[in-house]
Each structure stands twice: as structure tokens, then as C-alpha cells.
Design goal:
Length: 240
């Protein structure tokens, strides 16, 4: 594995009386895409939310380029170049598409060249630029949520199930945008249940179960081994 940009060491997270993460150890290599896989309820979303600071770890270290960001507030972590695309999209429905994008540009005014690239991969955002984000379709809202993370070059992109509930054509559009981001050298940690998309984008994979990482390795190794998939997740990606 190449030099990790992000490392989690023995991270434990509790939510109310529930113990969700039970000592997560995870490396996310720099400039590559790591897929975080596992059954529903395994702790994948909690891991992303703990990294960005929305939930505080009970114990353990979260190292971003060697700096321990565990227990720092989300705004501080965001200013260090970490962006989250949440599962619920998290857009501001009463604000326009333009206003949503402007708020996401934490480093200053939106770079026009980067905005033109986003418009090229997500054309509806140009069309509805001045419209309230709440008026967008579900697929267009997911485009906006993803584009907000992409509006600036980030050190780390955390993406939570971007294809969930979307039509195949919209998933293809998202896949192209994420592939462009990957080719530009981005570091991405992504939760995804669509194994076809996971295979297409992932360089590495980590499988969670019961709040722990139970396997990690090359995405190609997992994708080519049906018995391993069955043992780890009770699923087969063979025909996905």
C-alpha cells in the first residue's frame, strides 16, 4: 500500500448508549480510491461521520497526514481539506444551486475553471443554477451534493453511498464524475453498495462487520474471489 493520507487507529465511537465502532484500524492511501464495504449496520457511515468530526470518537486516533484530528470540530477538519458527501445529501433546499455551491467554497470565491468542469460532468447544475435546490429531482440533488465537495480541490473526499436509490443513467453520470476526480489524483474513501460501481472505481477495499475492519486489500482481489465475498459479506459480486 502506498503512503496513507488517512489512518485510523483503534477508533471507538459510541452513540448514546450504543457502541458502534469497536476499534477501527484503517489506512486510506494517498491519491487512490478506497471502498468501505459491508452489510447494513456494520458501522460504515459512523466511520465517515467520525472522521469528519460529526461524531466524536470515544478513543483512538485519526491521523490526517500524521496530524491527529480526532475530536476536532467538523469546521476545523473541513478547513484542513476534508469534504463529506453525506448519504442524505445535506443540501440547503431553500437556497439556490449557486448559493449551495458558494457556501461549499470554503477557501474563497469559486474558481471558474473548476466550475466549468463541474458543469461539464453535471449539466443540470448549470441549467438550474439560479433555482432553489429543493426543486431539483433526487438525482440532481445527488449531483449537487457531490459537486459541492468537488468545487475545490480537497485533500480527502468522504463519499457515503452516492448511487443509493438513483436511476442507472444518473449512476453512470456520477461514476464519470468520480472517475474524473480519481484520474486527477484525488484521495477518496467511499461507502458504496453498488458493487459494479465499487469495482469500477476502487483501488482498495476494506470490509466492515460489527464495527471493525475484518479484511482489507486490493479491490481487484475481492472482486475476483466469489468465495471471499461470500465469507466476508454473504454476497457475491460475481455478476454485479
Amino acid at each position: 500500500m502506498s503512503d496513507p493520507l488517512l489512518s485510523l487507529r483503534a477508533v471507538k465511537t459510541d452513540i448514546a448508549q450504543y457502541h458502534i465502532l469497536h476499534g477501527v484500524d484503517l489506512d486510506v492511501p494517498r491519491g487512490q480510491v478506497t471502498m468501505l464495504l459491508g452489510r447494513n449496520g456494520a458501522g460504515k457511515t459512523t466511520t465517515l461521520r467520525t472522521i469528519i468530526g460529526l461524531w466524536q470518537p470515544h478513543s483512538g486516533d485519526i491521523l490526517l497526514d500524521g496530524e491527529n484530528i480526532a475530536r476536532q470540530p467538523p469546521a476545523t477538519i473541513a478547513r484542513k481539506g476534508v469534504a463529506l458527501v453525506p448519504e442524505d445529501m445535506g443540501i440547503f433546499a431553500n437556497l439556490t444551486v449557486e448559493e449551495n455551491m458558494t457556501l461549499a467554497a470554503v477557501a474563497g470565491p469559486i474558481d471558474q475553471g473548476r466550475l466549468d468542469w463541474i458543469f461539464s460532468v453535471f449539466p443540470p447544475l448549470r441549467t438550474f443554477w439560479k433555482n432553489p435546490a429543493g426543486n431539483l429531482s433526487g438525482g440532481q440533488k445527488q449531483m449537487l451534493s457531490t459537486a459541492r465537495a468537488m468545487i475545490e480541490e480537497r485533500r480527502l473526499y468522504l463519499i457515503d453511498e452516492p448511487s443509493k436509490g438513483l436511476a442507472p443513467a444518473i449512476v453512470s453520470t456520477l461514476a464519470r464524475a468520480l472517475r474524473d476526480l480519481k484520474l486527477a489524483g484525488a484521495t477518496i474513501l467511499m461507502v458504496e453498495q453498488n458493487f459494479k460501481l465499487a469495482k469500477a472505481l476502487g483501488d482498495h477495499a476494506a470490509v466492515m462487520d460489527d464495527g471493525r475492519i475484518i479484511w482489507s486489500g486490493a479491490m481487484a482481489e475481492l472482486a475476483s474471489d466469489a468465495s471471499l465475498q461470500e465469507r466476508l459479506m454473504g454476497l457475491s459480486m460475481e455478476h454485479a
